[in-house]
């Protein structure tokens, strides 16, 4: 019986229209994000990294008007966490705006009541006759105040959506530049410890939603502090760490190279290619090894030449195979 009363009370307080409205807004936000990013198939295709690497040297054709608003890249894919986080941010902005609009009229009516009580208190009369001019003035002021609130909500809503779009555009451009080793307006990977990057990137979604709810300030890519004080801002640190982790984990050129190396790994050609790559990387990182390697190669070539001469003599002179070899 007690459980039945709880269920009935919950059903009575359930606003079907509100939740239907919020669900449709959330669904529209997801569809909007998927349409923008061309993610009908969110799962990456195996050849996407190859296609991205191939088109780097090709000049992309894009409309000059559209490129001023958004830089389209056919083979770039946004991370799922970034898409879901921004979808939730849009949903929360819609929900907050709808709640403010719905409760604005109640708030104004409450303010009018307090004004009337204040007038009664100031007049000092218990039976105050209604003044039509004063009542009309209060009603007109309440209507004007209500229009101001609605206008403020609409402006804040549009500004918040614009901030989300600007952050998406800035995130994409910064990740693409970071693929080439250019870090602009974001703390470089050398300025943050690896442990800090890993731990701070995990909190990116939480700071994004929290900043969205706190006064519509959802721009994490621009810190509210100065350039010297950016490391104090935890939201900006989480954003920069998230960018670095995305570059580390989804660099298309690195992934394409690893896939090429991993194809038919049982063959000796791939093993030989991998060894040459390790040798090339070691010589780049250690230039002092080049001279030692050159001397070693010259010594090996002398050994091989002497060995060939010895084998040729062994064919014509019997007993020479029992001689003791000495190489310079």
UniProtKB/TrEMBL annotation:
It comes from the Eukaryota. One of its GO terms (cellular component) is plasma membrane. The chain crosses the membrane at residues 19-37, 106-124, 144-166. Pfam families: RBP_receptor. Its main location: membrane. Signal peptide: none annotated. Keywords: Cell membrane, Membrane, Receptor, Transmembrane, Transmembrane helix, Transport. It is a multi-pass membrane protein. One of its GO terms (biological process) is vitamin A import into cell. One of its GO terms (molecular function) is signaling receptor activity. It is found in: Cell membrane. InterPro entries: STRA6-like. PANTHER family: COILED-COIL DOMAIN-CONTAINING PROTEIN 180, RECEPTOR FOR RETINOL UPTAKE STRA6. This is Stimulated by retinoic acid protein 6-like protein. It comes from Brachionus plicatilis (Marine rotifer).
């Amino acid at each position: 019986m007690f459980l039945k009363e709880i269920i009935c009370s919950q059903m009575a307080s359930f606003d079907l229209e509100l939740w239907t409205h919020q669900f449709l807004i959330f669904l529209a936000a997801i569809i909007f994000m998927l349409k923008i990013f061309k993610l009908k198939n969110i799962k990456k295709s195996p050849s996407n990294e190859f296609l991205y690497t191939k088109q780097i040297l090709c000049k992309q054709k894009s409309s000059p008007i559209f490129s001023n608003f958004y830089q389209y890249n056919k083979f770039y894919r946004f991370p799922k966490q970034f898409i879901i986080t921004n979808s939730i941010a849009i949903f929360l902005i819609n929900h907050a705006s709808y709640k403010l609009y719905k409760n604005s009229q109640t708030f104004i009516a409450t303010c009018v009541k307090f004004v009337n009580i204040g007038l009664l208190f100031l007049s000092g009369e218990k039976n105050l006759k209604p003044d039509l001019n004063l009542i009309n003035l209060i009603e007109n002021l309440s209507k004007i105040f209500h229009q101001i609130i609605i206008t403020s909500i609409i402006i804040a809503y549009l500004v918040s959506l614009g901030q989300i779009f600007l952050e998406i555009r800035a995130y994409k451009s910064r990740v693409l530049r970071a693929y080439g080793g250019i870090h602009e307006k974001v703390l470089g990977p050398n300025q943050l410890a690896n442990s800090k990057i890993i731990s701070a990137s995990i909190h990116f979604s939480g700071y994004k939603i929290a900043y969205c709810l706190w006064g519509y300030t959802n721009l994490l890519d621009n810190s509210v502090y100065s350039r010297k004080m950016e490391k104090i801002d935890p939201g900006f640190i989480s954003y920069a760490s998230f960018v670095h982790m995305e570059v580390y984990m989804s660099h298309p050129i690195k992934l394409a190279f690893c896939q090429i190396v991993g194809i038919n790994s049982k063959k000796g050609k791939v093993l030989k290619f991998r060894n040459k790559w390790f040798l090339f990387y070691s010589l780049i990182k250690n230039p002092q090894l080049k001279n030692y390697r050159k001397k070693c190669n010259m010594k090996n070539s002398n050994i091989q030449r002497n060995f060939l001469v010895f084998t040729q003599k062994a064919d014509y002179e019997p007993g020479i195979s029992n001689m003791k070899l000495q190489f310079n």
